[in-house]
Amino acid sequence: MSQLANPYSIWRRKPVQDVDEEKGGGLLRSLGLWQLTAIGVGGIIGVGIFTLAGVVAHGDSGNPGVGPAVVISFLVAGLASGAAALSYAEFAGMIPRAGSAYTYGYVALGELVGWFIGWDLLLEYIAIVAVVAIGISGYFSAFMGGIGVTVPDWISSAWTPDTPHGIINLPAVVVCLLVTWILSRGSKSFGRFELVAVAVKVLLILGIIGIGMFHINGSNFVPFMPTSFGPVLGGAATVFFAVFGYDAMSTAAEEATDAKKHMPKAIILSLIIAMVLYVMATLVLTGMQKYTDLNPNSAFASAFDSVGLPTIATIIAGFAVISILTVMLTFLLGVTRVWYAMSRDGLLPKWFSQTDKKRVPQRVTWIAGGASAVLAGVLPIRLVADLTNIGILAAFVVVCIAVIVLRRTKPDEPRTFRLPFMPVVPAFGVLASLFLITQLHWETWLRFAIWLIIGLIVYFFYGRQHSLMNPDSPRHAALSAPVSD
């Protein structure tokens, strides 16, 4: 049965040949290999290492600290992410279109699966931007403290049992709106900023490793795993946040100058660079200061302060604020491009896919930025990070399954990158992602389920009827109509 044999089915699939068509105005192609790699590295390296490493190593009121074994948490998460990264790389070289996992699921597994992942990513990417903003706020407070200014909890933290005086995280709100403005300036400006900021970030981490390794105290590694292996795996589910980012970068496929050639390379390069830096940095962190004494909100600044280097701690805090911005930019880019793609395909109202004269979808950019500001202002970091991770892990499961399915259903389709050891690698990605999902708290599952139920209601009452894959869709008149103002 062909893909269009039953065009009214919820399993109708978007033909692969459609992905090269730019219905509407399209997006501006201006990103080369190194800009794409910078976006990937910018999305991967950030709050995951600067904040979540300290959170997992130290522990919090509901989770025991895993100590130096946090490096194992990163390696477990990295293995799961690596299998998914190879799956993304094959798709990115085959389907150079905005939307990432949403588009891949739509092409390989059908419209309902594509919708499920797209709707999932709308929440998850917004939540990621919020998590990173909260992480930046912690380093901002540490930086201000280093220059003698105390930022009160009531304007720098949401309420939690650990911060009972918190009301709103104002620095996090402000930084969300700042990155929204940067992204609204267009992909050329964004790409240049990202390249410079990522270079600063990598130099910062290399500096942390280079200086910190001379202040490692071997006794801080004892005990290496103060709890059982269970909390280490739970920590892997949390720090998983730190080992993706290439998926958001893949949403920029329509803005790449040569997506089929450059996207697979950029995905793999960005993950390799990040994992090497992660392993070295976490070992330095837990070697410099006893994990029980780390400040989970600004762990590296805390570690350098503990060895009598307060000036270095202040510099780290300041540069961490700047460098972590790249993560927010990458994922805000991701959510706006997924939202744009779903709107262009008819699953969401056409109003969302309107672009300005710079071919930037300004409406969804500011809506997504505003939503992330609200989440960052009132929610604690671990709650938002876990909510993010369950959604991304679900997307990884779908992408890994989809790459197996499409290899069987479209074996002769041109691919600029072919995933090795098929189907072992993607099957491992599925199992590893499912396992990490089981490590998350039941409250996270509940919030995720509520969001998906809302999404199903939107799909069956709007998306299914207005989809461009539906022959009776009222949106068919927009197939060749421009979407730019």
Describe the structure.
It is built from 16 helices and 2 strands. A two-stranded antiparallel sheet has the order 1-2. Helix 2 packs parallel to helix 10, helix 5 runs antiparallel to helix 12 and helix 5 crosses helix 13. The protein is globular and about 70 Å long. It starts with 32 loop residues before the first helix and ends in a 19-residue tail after the last helix. It is mostly helical and 485 residues long. Strand 1 and strand 2 form a beta hairpin.
Any idea what the shape is?
Answer: globular
Spans with pLDDT under 50 lasting ≥5 residues? 21-25
Query: In terms of structural class, how would the helical and strand content be classed?
Result: mainly alpha
Number of strands: 2
Sketch the major β-sheet: 2 strands, antiparallel
The run of helices and strands is HHEEHHHHHHHHHHHHHH
Question: Strand order across the biggest sheet?
Answer: 1-2
